[in-house]
């Protein structure tokens, strides 16, 4: 608005757009959080961001982080990195503080919590095709291509599994008074998954398979064909548990370059 | 933490560091705010960010925006743009929602407000030297170099002045019932500063010079020699009103490359 | 090698790598060339670059430009843009001047000619699948996906066609003395392709279809399965004229993410 | 020129401009050169580039590299990195091959040599002020600020010195038949500058101080006030040997932001 001899300073802002036709992931991460407390709350935050940005078709969260995935054709904010990271991160943060009292009435926040956000983009995805041709074949056919975008989500999914198994053991040891946090850490340091399962079962009568899917597998928010937002706590690595039944998420018509 | 065959996806994150030895400005901006309401609150937010980041030596705010300036030698987060923008923006947002009830008890927030943040860097600054030499000259001598960093702050300062004069006229017309918002806008569209001053004085008996400096000049937060944070509502364009008395802000010893 | 107090200046070099798993195109362009003279020579230059960089699987040239395409998995020079552009451009230039006398003995260069180079990357490609399944279908099946990388080559191909048709008309008019360059330009300005074909045929008895494929379609260099470099002057837009018979170029095993 | 449905692919080119108001250095480097042979020739190449780009005010070369420095206000090619690197590198290369026969008639090039080029930018410089004030002081006064741009040149200058002293020893040992290259390398590996001076003097009666300044100090090309290009083989680290007598190079009026 203000035209002055100082206005030239605007030109020092450098462009930072993300390559076209790549999936854009904004991952929001808690800064120094007590991770255990907040899982329900951050689902609410991711949902608030998805409601504002129609081009986010899927979001996956676990622990104190959420990855929000924009369609590869999105043009929101001209695909500028810092604009995307700061806006998504700010809205997520705002929703977190705003909704906190609804979830944790008895333990008010004592300081303003914050998140960082980063932007990564992926050029390819594991595609599931339904091939149709003429004359028609005996069965529908899926051609699978294993690629980066799904690998990203698989990476976060593995992280969820490993962290949650560790944390379940750790807090079982600590909360029951069996160990100090230091002892628990030392005890768990060199155990593999199998040993952790056995520890839970033998010492705490916990069958890890019975743990809530939300904790074991994280929370996947996705946009349904009618544009509403649904949630699932499922395996995102295998094709069968989520992707085959949600093929349109990965191959929307408008992406068809 | 989790080592899996998916971990390669980390390498898709591209670096985005800001050039070394340049002042880094992070400007936080309200997204669609009712601008009038919030000036006190955002000073609090900027202060919270300055308390967390010791390398911010000055912050200037007006309307619904705040510019936070890092020293040119800062190495916080390796000077990565999206990390800086998202973290500063998130902390600012969090403080805004967190502190809101202290300022506006009677009007609770009805939805989570958010901010965007951008990063710009400036290579030079208007330097004020105190020259000392031998034999001593009759007076101390200032050599001034007009440069980018101070021009940036002057740019925001001019913006503050123009917006505030306009808004003072606009809301005077609207709140007193003299005009509809549309009429007020039409009336003010082609008036210059002088005409606006006269309008305020003749119709509303307001001498614009008597308006609070906080509104006329915005709010400058700066770090004092003892590292505490002070506030001033002063002219940032002229040398005499702020800079000459705060030379160390611009020429800290550690910046002396 | 030299360790001195000045060495810190190395850290001012900013990273500029290209996103992983995308095809990298380096396009080399003559700076202010007489375009007509040089087609054979630039094929030699592109070949020299392909001999040095084994990760270039295809190069397409026309007029005074050449586009060299690296496999999407290449890691040459850590995918740094300026390194790729400058090295490819320098080698191309060097070969141009070095080999000039072999082609144009009677017209020695009078000044050092130069090229610029740019880097663009593409995340996707028009893929041609050979689907095999069980029980086997009556015929092999191609699934086509139209995408960016092939569209880039098609774009340059269309450019080749339009420029060459125009230039053939232009130089026919000028060289036969029928028009001055200005008149020829004015005459051709608003003609479509059909009118240009007719002009060539009626005034110069030239059937454009008989023009050498090298001029009409440009020159495609590609790496054969035995890693040698072959050349073709073919339509790169349609599937049938080149791509279907060279499927491995687009889907090398090592790209299979 | 060609408007087609493929033209959208242009938008995949990402911007890469250098921050405003910073000195831009393009450093051109020989790829795998026999370094000894070429010093005169590369001065010619740098001069050709300076003749084409009026905004290069200084160039410093040694061994097989040249650093060309653009004024900080240059807007050539909109300050795009790859465009600058590729064009400067190409012109440098072209001049190298083009002028080769003039210098090395008896040893023609056997293959096309090439260079890479990189872009670095520096925000500050060691400034030399001439302070004038009223009433006039007894002497003119220089205020020195040690900064990045001059440090860059000092860095290359130190590199020149160290490499040249090493190479003088190495080739003295090898050319006289006293050592194999391997022995020479082993002999020199852990010697300091003083030991190298003594080796030259005692074994080869060479006083290193008598070596040509062009080899000891490299070649500085600079633009004189009348815009012609001059050359100097001087110390670029100290203020007195070059900079104080060429103050306008560093503080041209048009840079005065």
UniProtKB/TrEMBL annotation, chains A, B, C, D:
Signal peptide: none annotated. Pfam families: Thg1, Thg1C. Its cofactor is Mg(2+). Keywords: GTP-binding, Magnesium, Metal-binding, Nucleotide-binding, Nucleotidyltransferase, Transferase, tRNA processing. The keyword Transcription does not apply. It is an enzyme of class 2 (transferase). GO terms for molecular function: GTP binding; magnesium ion binding; tRNA guanylyltransferase activity. Residues 6-123 form the tRNAHis guanylyltransferase catalytic domain. The keyword Metal-binding applies. Gene3D superfamilies: 3.30.70.3000. InterPro entries: Thg1_C_dom (IPR025845), tRNAHis_GuaTrfase_cat (IPR024956), tRNAHis_GuaTrfase_Thg1 (IPR007537), tRNAHis_GuaTrfase_Thg1_sf (IPR038469). Belongs to the tRNA(His) guanylyltransferase family. This is tRNA(His) guanylyltransferase. It comes from Aphanomyces astaci (Crayfish plague agent). The lineage of its organism: Eukaryota, Sar, Stramenopiles, Oomycota, Saprolegniomycetes.
């Amino acid at each position: 608005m203000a035209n002055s001899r100082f206005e030239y300073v605007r030109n020092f802002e450098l462009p930072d757009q993300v390559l076209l036709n790549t999936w854009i992931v904004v991952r929001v991460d808690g800064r120094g959080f007590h991770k255990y407390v907040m899982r329900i709350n951050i689902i609410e935050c991711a949902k608030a961001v998805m409601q504002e940005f129609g081009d986010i078709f899927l979001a996956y969260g676990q622990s104190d982080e959420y990855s929000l995935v924009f369609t590869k054709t999105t043009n929101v904010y001209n695909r500028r990195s810092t604009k995307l990271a700061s806006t998504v991160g700010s809205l997520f943060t705002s929703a977190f503080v705003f909704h906190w009292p609804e979830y944790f009435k008895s333990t008010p926040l004592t300081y303003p919590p914050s998140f960082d956000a980063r932007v990564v983009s992926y050029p390819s995805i594991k595609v599931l095709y339904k091939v149709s041709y003429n004359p028609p074949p005996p069965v529908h056919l899926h051609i699978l291509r294993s690629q980066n975008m799904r690998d990203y989500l698989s990476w976060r999914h593995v992280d969820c599994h490993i962290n949650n198994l560790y944390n379940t053991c750790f807090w079982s040891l600590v909360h029951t008074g069996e160990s100090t946090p230091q002892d628990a850490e030392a005890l768990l340091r060199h155990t593999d998954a199998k040993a952790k399962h056995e520890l839970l079962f033998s010492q705490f009568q916990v069958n890890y398979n019975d743990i809530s899917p939300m904790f074991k597998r994280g929370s996947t928010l996705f946009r349904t064909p009618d544009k509403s937002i649904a949630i699932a706590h499922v395996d995102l690595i295998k094709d069968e548990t989520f992707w085959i039944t949600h093929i349109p998420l990965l191959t929307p018509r408008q992406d068809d370059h």
